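can u pls check wat happens w/ iron/sulfur cluster
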Amino acid sequence: MTSPVRVDFKKIYYQRRIAENETWKQNAQAILERFPNAEVIEVDQHWRIPELAEADPSQWIRTKNDVLVLGVKTTLSHQKNGRSADYIAASVSNGCLSSCQYCYVARRKGGSNPLSLYVNIEQIADAIEKHSVRLGAKLVPNQTDPSLWTYDIGCNADLSLDAMVCDHPQYLIQRFSEMKYAKATFATKTVNEDAWLRVDPKGHTRIRYSIMPASIARYVDIRTSPIEDRMRSVNRLIDAGYEVHLNFSPIIMYGGDQWRKDWLETFDQLNDILSPKAKEQLACEAFFLSHSEAVHELNMQWNPKGEEFLWAPEIQAPKTNKEDVLVYNWSLRRDALGWFENAVGKKLPYCPVRYSF
Ligand code: SF4
């Protein structure tokens, strides 16, 4: 499978604090050894590094190719969620080698959004384990899982790509496989089976492949695996012991009713590709695009073509509780969501919608 990204960093920003702990140092060293030619630049913090925040947005992809940040995650709390998971776990990384044009992670990062990896991975895993033990057995099933507490471990990144740079994602899956009450889950747009087939998740990891019509993905899902490859990978990951769900997102409205036609074709394609075993365990989540003026302006500097699909001020309005986030007008979205759920029910009757918005 061809990688959608080039992994060959030229500069690695290294948070000084890493040197305070022998394990963090070793974890960072293992990563540095993979990129022996990279220049290492020591910094006080991994967040808001001035030359990254103020980088030239027209060099957006180049910065992703050239720069990696290594840091220590200090806030080890897990936020209650109830949508894709019961909890959003403390992040193990932030930023991403992909460059989806609607990515919310980029919203407050200024002129670039390179990958930052946190090297205190054992501490993060310990914090999740402790949290789940405190919760004890899950007695009341909910839509995220009937019997295990679910933790989204990839909310601010794509772990399939992180796994091309370090072994942290595999380590986490291994740790979850030993946790009595917890299950890991993460969304991904990249096929990296080599990484996942090296670990036995023992029923404690759910991968969520993000799917959208291939005809629109080529303009907005930049540096990700082709949609058909993601669909085919579902079958193989299930055979390897993973649970695999689908993340239908973001749903983008374009071309009058064209977006609806494209989704119906996508559902047909899924029907053809997914194995009976995959269909048996399938569920999905679905949600509409959210965007922001700041990201729109950045995007116009490196991929204006994608904005033709994402930027639609005539049907977008600020979100009620977050003024800087733009969503489709409520009545339009409500009707479109009704249509979407109905289409999933008809075309993929074996695939319940876990949640949607
Ligand atoms: S894969 Fe996820 S984190 Fe990465 S750029 Fe796309 S939306 Fe953002």
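DSSP finds 14 helices and 18 strands in the chain.
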